[in-house]
Design goal:
This protein has helices at 22-54, 61-75, 79-83, 85-89, 120-123, 149-166, 185-194, 234-252, 273-276, 293-299, 302-319; strands spanning 105-110, 126-128, 133-135, 170-173, 199-206, 216-220, 224-225, 228-229, 266-269, 282-289. By secondary structure, the protein is α/β, with parallel strands linked by helices. It has two domains: 13-87, no CATH class; 105-319, Aminopeptidase. A hairpin with a 4-residue loop joins strand 2 (126-128) and strand 3 (133-135). Helix 6 (149-166) crosses helix 11. It starts with 21 loop residues before the first helix and ends with a helix. Bound molecules: zinc ion (ZN). Zinc ion (ZN) binds at residues 111-112, 140, 149, 204. The site of zinc ion has 5 residues, from loops.
């Protein structure tokens, strides 16, 4: 507030008289404002209290989960968590939820990175994808209004993580907006492999021309070469992809892509390093077309992204038998 920035008064408030110049009267103004401040604060507090329970504002799934975590930890009989005041104050330290996916590991791969635009040289480096060499990573696309695919993919991945963790899964993200660029596609595959993931989903949105609409799942082709050998993952990845497609369609109301996959929402590709180098069941999901205004209106909506995350989490849960 502006009056807080004012220089200190030249004299104490007790020396004020109506005859003094304006700057000498300012302490009186400050006193009046100071008297008002508790009223303002009380009003603000009242507003917060009234808004709290009745608020319909959308709340991120992670926030709900975090808010409920201490209670569930206590309910689970975690003596350490319930006895320690610091554990109660730090929900992220609470024990993971127990549920149908306890003991399962899911790797979620948020496609691209918002920093890739600024690191062209690094992401253009060629990496070995077994069958070929390919760029480390790409920038991804954006909507016509500039919402980045990399922002979208990370947001949806956070929502999926919260939903799966609530069912007891261990969820690993290949990155969490915590590095300036990348990771490279070979490292993204390696993270899934090293985590011994039961399922891996790479989250994307497409950049096709306007009028092309809908989602599609990309399944690994059978490839062999160098470090790439998908023989063991082609079957389970198709199962994962089919469950993902049907649950995604149900949860979002979106249709399978009208521009590829012959209306099945499924496409097989042999040129993606993230799939070729995976030794774990893995698919890519292109959630919609960022360059189509109707699809973009969905992709930019937090409510729609929550539905998308629900569809993805349900598909993974079905695949894992949870
Ligand atoms: Zn992408």
């Amino acid at each position: 507030m502006r009056y807080d920035d004012s220089p200190p008064p030249p004299e104490s408030a007790s020396s004020i008289s109506p005859d003094r110049p304006w700057f000498a009267r300012r302490p009186a103004l400050a006193v009046a404002l100071a008297a008002l401040a508790p009223t303002c604060l009380a009003g603000w507090v009242l507003t917060q209290v009234l808004a709290g329970p009745a608020s319909n504002a959308p709340q991120p799934a992670g926030a709900k989960l975090a808010a409920s975590a201490p209670a569930s930890a206590a309910a689970a009989g975690d003596a350490k968590a319930s006895a320690s005041p610091s554990a109660a104050a730090a929900p992220q330290a609470a024990a993971p939820a127990k549920g149908p996916l306890t003991g399962r590991t899911v790797v979620i791969d948020p496609g691209h990175n918002t920093g890739n635009f600024k690191h062209g040289r690094e992401i253009d480096q060629q990496v070995d994808i077994g069958t070929n060499r390919k760029e480390c990573d790409t920038t991804g696309t954006t909507t016509n209004s500039g919402y980045m695919e990399a922002e979208f993919s990370l947001d949806v991945s956070h929502r999926v993580r919260a939903l799966l963790e609530a069912k007891g899964a261990k969820v690993v993200l290949t990155h969490d907006g915590d590095r300036p660029w990348g990771p490279c596609i070979d490292e993204r595959a390696r993270i899934g492999n090293q985590a011994a993931a039961d399922a891996v989903v790479s989250v994307h949105a497409d950049g096709a021309s306007a009028g092309n609409r809908g989602f599609h799942v990309i399944l690994p082709a059978r490839v062999k070469g160098g470090a790439a050998d998908t023989a063991k993952i082609v079957g389970p990845s198709r199962d994962l992809g089919e469950r993902l497609a049907s649950n995604f369609a149900r949860a979002t109301g979106s249709s399978p892509a009208n521009y590829l996959g012959s209306g099945t929402g499924l496409v097989v590709r042999d040129d993606l390093g993230g799939l070729n180098l995976s030794t774990r069941p893995k698919v890519f999901l292109e959630c919609g077309n960022m360059r189509d205004d109707k699809d973009a209106a969905q992709l930019t909506s937090p409510e729609w992204r929550q539905k998308a995350a629900q569809g993805i989490a349900d598909g993974i849960t079905g695949f894992l038998g949870g």
